[in-house]
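In the lab's daily routine, each protein ends up as an entry in a very long ledger. A line of letters takes care of the sequence, but it says nothing directly about the fold. The three-dimensional part falls to structure tokens, numbers that each stand for a local backbone shape. The outcome of that step, for a single protein, is printed below.
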Amino acid sequence: MARSPVAGSSVQHERVARTTRAVNSALMTLLAVATITGVIAFALGTAPAATVVVAVHGASGLGLLLLVPAKVGIARRGLRRPGRLRKVISLALAGIVALALAAGLLHAVAGFVPVAGLLPMQAHVGAAVLAGVLLAVHVARYRRWPWLRTTDVDRRLALRGAAVIAGAAALDALVAGRPRRFTGSHEVGSGDPLAMPVTQWLADPVLRIDPAGWRLGLPGGALDLAALAAQPQTVVRSVLDCTGGWYAEQEWRGVRVADLGLPRSASLNVISATGYHRRLPASDAATLLLATHVAGRPLSAAHGGPARLVAPGRRGFWWVKWVIAVEATDEPWWWQPPLPLQ
């Protein structure tokens, strides 16, 4: 029996709708995985957890590239529908996601190389954040996102999904780029503080504090630089791994936080002259160092002098620069934003 044109059109429409749901669901899942693993990767400074997270982050991002051909067809159909705002948001989202992917690839392949005064990692993270905002707006306009239905899942779809996952993993291995640390950071300036990049968190300026007037506030009083130098000195070799995409291994000298005579507490709040601060578990006091020297030379202002925190095994945003106080507090160290907001 011949199929009627209406029935054939209905079957074709459902096939297109099913493909659209599958592709959009895959894209949303990959974007969510890339975003979550990206945030986690910022926080992790030790292997093997960071190794796995960064690998998943890279593969999920590259998986988006494999879905571009399918998404282009869907986008073309969507752009034919009325609604200028929808089109603007869709095109902007596509462009921002493309920028995030391109910046991530540039970081992997080219290394720690500023472009037009902006680091690839900065462009990658900034574009990813903006993409998240645009995606939220885009989804809100749908009111009901066209997720994959249970009736859509069959053997063919499962094979295609497996192919995307395998292809993303293979592509991630092929574009491994230049050698990097397990966090994805490139080595810059190890053993040579003068070659070590100068980066701050967000809008913090480089402070130039007169060493003669510097004081370290402690619960029992304050220490000047001479008094701090009179304390037992410790030398540690540790890696400063910046979320800007670089790392450097240096020899740091200073006073262990455990030797500062702080009262027993749950946490230690390390405060910068800029107002920036991070709270760390008191149990880490024996490994934390209030450094005044790097590679045998006094810390420069750009690298946090007269004193900065050295926090082995933690990413650079924990290494508070221009430290002016260390407080003992009973607030749990984890009761703070996972990433600084100022």
User: Anything to note?
Assistant: The radius of gyration is 25 Å. The mean pLDDT is 86. The longest strand covers residues 246-256.
